[in-house]
Amino acid sequence: MLTIGRCLFCLIIQGKIPSYKVYETEHSYAFLDINPVSEGHTLVIPKHHTVKLGELPDEYLSDIGPAIKKVALATGAEDYNVLQNNGKLAFQHVDHVHFHVIPKPNAKEGLV
Ligand code: 5GP
Ligand code: ZN
Question: What are the extents of the domains in the chain?
């Protein structure tokens, strides 16, 4: 596992910057987005620092898939988006691999 001191999400993994933890596995960490698109908007990140998905070792990739699924189901939303941006042109703002899990509020629960 590699973490670096000048990376915001590495500092979150290290507990040096506070976060609201949603779920954690050996190789992955999930926490609420500070600026949520919808209630429950969660970021799922590997505990190993790489900027882009293509650089991520397979052991972290195989761990994060089930973690994303668990988080998506835990939101309780029937519909949701999973987004992952790589590089500035693709609107990546934090240079540590992260998956957005963005629930779409369930209309039947009265949420818009
Ligand atoms: P990106 O635009 O890189 O795909 O997504 C970065 C996400 O990180 C954004 O949705 C932003 O709100 C979130 N974010 C940025 N800084 C922090 C922080 O300090 N804590 C948390 N929990 N989320 C953050
Ligand atoms: Zn990092």
Answer: 8-109
Q: How much is the ipTM here?
A: 0.98
Question: 8-109: which CATH number, 1.10.510.10, 3.30.428.10, 3.40.50.1000, 1.20.81.30?
Answer: 3.30.428.10
Tens of pLDDT, residues 67-95: 999 999 999 999 999 999 999 999 999 99
pTM of the model: 0.94
List, in sequence order, every residue forming a beta bridge with 32; answer none if it has no partner: 42
- C-beta of 86 in contact with ligand 1 (< 6 A): no
Q: How far is the centre of ligand 1, averaged over its atoms, from the C-alpha of 21 (Å)?
A: 14
Work out the number of other CB atoms within 10 angstroms of the CB of residue 11. 17
CA 82 – CA 47 distance, rounded (Å): 19
Atom of ligand 1 nearest to the CA of 93: 3
